[in-house]
Amino acid sequence: MRQSLRLGVIAGIPVGVHWSVLVVAILIWQMLALAVVPAGAPGRWLLAAAGAVVFLASLLAHELAHALVGRLYGVRADRVTLWVFGGVTEFRTAAPHPRADLFTAVAGPAASALCGAVAAGIALPLGGGSGWLGGVAATLRWLAAINLLLAVFNLLPGAPLDGGRVLRAVLWWWRGDRGRADVTAARVGRVLGAGLIALGVAQLLVAGDPGGIWLALIGWLLSAAAVAEANAGRYRAALGELPVRAVMRPEVVCADPGWTVADAEAALTSPSAGGVVAVRARDGRPAAVVRSGDLDRIPPAQRAELPVSRLADAVPVVEAAQPLADVAGPVSRAGTALVVQDGRLVGVLERAAVVEAVRRGPAETPSRPAETPSRPADTPGRPPLSG
Ligand SMILES: [Zn+2]
């Protein structure tokens, strides 16, 4: 997730917010001022603003707990970001064993529960009342309740919720197959998502509460994320940690900036092209391809003039060392992907090669070292597809 505003680097992990978090901040601020802080409390709006900020900080604490505990087990977090639906910790590497997976997952809800307990502990001696202290106590009680609710909600046992990760870790430990555990946890996540959508719609239609829209949206997001996780899990079960490099075609023809359709046509006659010419974006990064079939529909008279870049289709760009399982879904949908290593174009990955690797499984697919491309492209690389 892109960070619109970087808040800082905590223990080496970039922490930031996506602009959409503003929506939540404003909603919580309003809700606290109008429904939680007593109407007579002095500085009511200021107090509500402070409550909203502390709430966002407690979401960050939840995500940082995931990131820091993951790091204890060597799982690297790329960044922690807050957005409209909460926090996201993006991990670069997978947990090495079920225990690491379990503790990394549990750390977030544990941090939320701790935040809730601390808020409740401070609120308790303050008591009620409608003065300033009463306002502080009411805000703290709300913070305690919402953090405990978040801890419980996140422990629902469907991926990608933390409880789904816990379920995955337990199944992984029990059956010894991370891919299958991924698929099962994601299936439960889909059911949970559907349940939340139904609850949200009922809340809206039966109780007339517009808060149901929010619940339904969260359910829909959960379902969509669970489908993506199930697909990745299926690929992981079939492919293990097989890297992209092992199944890519290590020859690639890359168009020069001034190439016309005729130039590409000539290049495509070479067997090393394999029916595909890579095309760079304006900034020089490999980003698109032209296939032989694309050129046939251009009238011969235009071929010597028309820049080939006009016909290029944007495709995924993946890293040679990345696990194939992480990118197999997007590559299968796109049909073709370009493979880079240290920013250099080193190969082409075709859907057929992914299908073949899935059919044979990781043990029978020979690992192939990266070779020098036929046209080296010294361009800066793109980050891998999966965050
Ligand atoms: Zn979490």
Describe what you observe in this structure.
- The chain contains 11 helices and 11 strands.
- The chain is of the alpha/beta class.
- It has 2 domains: 5-239, no CATH class; 244-360, CBS-domain, CATH 3.10.580.10.
- The strands form 3 sheets. It has a 4-stranded mixed β-sheet with strand order 1-2-3-4.
- Helix 10 (324-334) links the parallel strand 9 (317-319) and strand 10.
- Helix 2 (44-72) packs parallel to helix 4 (132-154).
- The radius of gyration is 26 Å and the shape is elongated.
- The model is unreliable at 367-387 (pLDDT under 50).
- The chain binds zinc ion.
- Residues 62, 66, 108, 154, 162 line the site of zinc ion.
Number of domains: 2
Strand order of the largest sheet: 1-2-3-4
Rg on CA atoms, Å:
26 Å
How many strands appear in the DSSP assignment?
11
Q: Order of SSEs, N→C?
A: EEHHEEHHHHHEHEEHEEHEEH
Estimate the global geometry from the Cα principal axes: elongated
The bound ligands are: zinc ion
Oligomer kind: single chain
Distance between the termini: 8 Å
How much of the sequence lies in strands comes to 5-15%
Question: How helix-rich are the residues, as a percent range?
Answer: 40-55%
Rounded average pLDDT: 85
List keywords for this structure.
387 residues; alpha/beta; CBS-domain; 2 domains; four-stranded mixed beta sheet; 11 helices; 11 strands; 52% helix; elongated; disordered C terminus; binds zinc ion
